[in-house]
Design brief:
The complex is a heterodimer of chains A (116) and B (107). Chain A is mostly beta strands. Chain A is built from no helices and eleven strands. Chain A has strands spanning 4-7, 10-13, 19-25, 30-38, 45-51, 57-58, 67-73, 76-81, 90-98, 105-107, 111-115. The radius of gyration of chain A is 13 Å and the shape is globular. Chain A starts with a strand and ends with a strand. Helix content of chain B is 0%, strand content 60%. Chain B has strands at 4-7, 10-14, 19-25, 31-37, 43-49, 52-56, 59-64, 69-74, 83-90, 95-97, 101-106. Chain B starts with a strand and ends with a strand. Chain B is globular, with a radius of gyration of 13 Å. In chain B, the strands form two sheets. In chain B, strands 2, 4, 5, 9, 10 and 11 form a six-stranded mixed beta sheet that branches. A five-stranded antiparallel beta sheet of chain B has the order 1-3-8-7-6, with no helix packed on it. The chains are: A mainly beta (116), B mainly beta (107). At the A-B interface, strand 4, strand 9 and strand 10 of A face strand 4, strand 5 and strand 9 of B.
Chain lengths: 116, 107
């Protein structure tokens, strides 16, 4: 089946630094990628929708200047957490929607971010 | 806004037992997904279905569109099945996730 990878899988950083998380579709083209955040024992919450070649669409309450999303190609989207703070510590998951198949979405393995 | 509810929230079973996890949603959907989240956090997509029934190994997923209900069944459960199982529905662009069912299978 289709595979979505995320890198890194885990990251620890100091408060105030920026962290970049990559999401790649390995064997298919993804015109749309989604970024989710999951706090402990809670459901996944959609942060933003990333469309290749255009600006991301952010959900209400998600700061676009803090969570920078770049979808530069049909196989890669990046999420940069700028000036990270301890409250940004979370599990970040991306998913990729198969081009031409709007109901088919594959999830990445997630990135656990810990901000000290 | 669609609401997705799962039951039970927590489930403990003995190895070999037949397991059922239920998912209900409130509005019409285009597809329903069952996801498995391992203790380390990684998510695996188990099924995507919009009608009927699908089977993969010991896993079976069913959906009743009229009743807005889906079930995930695990036959001959094994400790490696221990994980959080999440149902998620999509009406197009937006996904709505249930809060998950935490399954523990005891040897």
């Amino acid at each position: 089946g289709a595979v979505v990878s995320q890198h890194p899988s885990r990251v620890i950083c100091k408060s105030g630094t920026s962290v970049k998380i990559e999401c790649r579709s390995l064997d298919f083209q993804a015109t749309t990628m989604f970024w989710y955040r999951q706090f402990p024992k809670q459901s996944l919450m959609l942060m933003a929708t990333s469309n290749e070649g255009s600006k991301a669409t952010y959900e209400q309450g998600v700061e676009k200047d803090k969570f920078l999303i770049n979808h530069a190609s049909l196989t890669l989207s990046t999420l940069t957490v700028t000036s990270a703070h301890p409250e940004d510590s979370s599990f970040y998951i991306c998913s990729a929607r198969v081009a031409g198949s709007p109901r088919t979405q594959y999830f990445g393995p997630g990135t656990r971010l810990l901000v000290l | 806004k669609n609401e997705v509810e799962q039951s039970p929230q927590n489930l403990t079973a003995q190895e070999g037992e037949f397991i059922t996890i239920n998912c209900s949603y409130s509005v019409g959907i285009s597809a329903l997904h069952w996801l498995q989240q391992h203790p380390g956090g990684g998510i695996v997509s188990l099924f995507m279905l919009s009608s009927g029934k699908k089977k993969h190994g010991r896993l079976i997923a069913t959906i009743n569109i009229q009743e807005k209900h889906s079930s995930l069944h695990i036959t001959a459960s094994h400790p490696r099945d221990s994980a959080v199982y999440i149902c998620a529905e999509t009406t197009g662009n937006q996904f709505y996730f249930g809060t998950g069912t935490s399954l523990t299978v005891i040897p």
